[in-house]
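Archive entry: two folds, one per protein. Generate the first.
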Amino acid sequence: MSEFLAEIVGTAILILFGGGVCANVNLKGTLGKGADWIVISMGWGLAVMLGVYAAGNVSGAHLNPAVTLGFAIDGSFPWSKVVPFIIAQFIGAMIGATLVWASYLPHWKKTEDQGAKLGTFATGPSYPNYVANFLSEIIGTMILVMGLLFIGTNKFTDGLNPLIVGLLIVAIGLSLGGATGYAINPARDIGPRIMHMLLPIPGKGSSNWKYAIVPLLGPIAGGMFGAALYNILFKGIFNGFIIFAIIFTIVVVLLGIALNKAILKDEVAEIL
């Protein structure tokens, strides 16, 4: 299996189980309807674990453009592979989302809540505020990438690493996921959001593209910033890539201020 195919398969597995738990909890008539945030966080953690087990020995199982870019900033992953990996991750996410849709076919029509349908595919904020939402995704993904780099410096029993990574996802979800649904992965949100737009889902409503820039740019900034911070604090390295990551993160937060004024206006939730 090629690295490209491994990233497709691993990301598809990630979304199949992750999107699947959201469908099971949110869609009308499912046996998991009404379960709580702990179930969703556990489901996503197990989803990542299984995706990593599937692809880890072939591609390293990034399954996430923010991780790929973070590792490139860290210097542990070649820039020449960044674009192919990201393309594979988006393809895998779209495949996984389609499988979730097929698994719950009777439930889309029975579910009247458009937000529940979209929430099976993509994330959304508890309170709409681009600055706060960007910060939530940046911090969550920063911890994700730093955590992966921490894990990489420790020795575990063979085959245990994916379980530890899955527990990291559970921890992020339980502690930091309540503000935005913790995309912490552009492919995890944008790929399924595209499928929500394209698939024949009865009464699905809007795909909320005005919010999509948050789970796209927030995790990218957070992943690169996490790698930059790790290199500064633990390796004593400060180079051009790290400067770029810091500047990019600042620009994303400033973009949030502009978007609050341009798009949300009076709808924006106060943060202070």
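Generate the second and append.
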Amino acid sequence: MTIHSDIRPAPAAKATLQVWRGESLLSRLIRQVILPLMGSKRVLRDIERHARQLRRQRLKGEAKPTRRVVRDCNITAREIAGSNVLFVEPKDGAVTRTIIYIHGGAYVANMMIHQWNLVEGLAMQNRARVVVPHYPLAPENDWQPAFAMMRTLYESLVAEVGAENIVLTGDSAGAGLALSFAQLLRDEGQPLPAKMVLYSPWLDLREDNPEQDAYDAADPMLARPVLVWSAKRWAGDTALNDPRISPVLGDIRDLPPMLVFSGTADLLHPDSLALFAKAQADGCDLKLIIGERMTHAWSVLETSEARRLHRETAAFLR
């Protein structure tokens, strides 16, 4: 199923949109065969079944770096504000910038093995030190401990390298947290990172957008029931329409330049379209790249489309 967006940027706006057409054989196999066989969509429709799976996943802890990352990168760990933070940088060559990568997982799941592919791409393609915070998760915590931890981490990095040498990135829920955190920094008059990159962002946790209905059948991975459950646990006593929870509902003016990736086989694609529409209306510096038939979190896969995504990210950050 292919869904085309009819949104195009106005000539005077700083927001731009690009559609990547075509689908590699591997991406098609993942979308049509592998992901359906894995059954994640069935699990995410069943809250009790998901809860059991989540408990098992959380007991295993954060996914360890892949062998390739261990081979090519130096990895050190620090405890910051009570949370484990990993620092990943290429073994050969000088590091030119610091990239904060906030992992996704609906705010309830540990970092998963495939997300190390994204960390590797960020580090190697950009000659960067990638900072990976294992932030406090729901349902044990709402959003506030994660924000506090991110504030401590960010302030330490600004003191070390300067905000102009920091890039803020994230995938899925991590991308939402990145945008919410940047809005908070702006509102408090804090120095902002140089740029931001959001991969398959989850930006509207109300999960009541009727436009999602058109993408549900095309998405082989995500389902609303567990997203709704996760959103309520992350929000806690805070309203779901609060921009700290649903950043697409907040003010996105005066933020760093943003690069956003989304796909038409992603239930959350309307969130990126809504962000683009807001950026277009407000004249924000944002580029949205839409991958036709790309699934949620295609940035963490080992496909030709993901490799192109890494090259585009590197060009944006130069």
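Annotation attached to the second fold: The first strand starts at residue 16 and ends at 20. Residues 1-12 have pLDDT under 50 and may be disordered.
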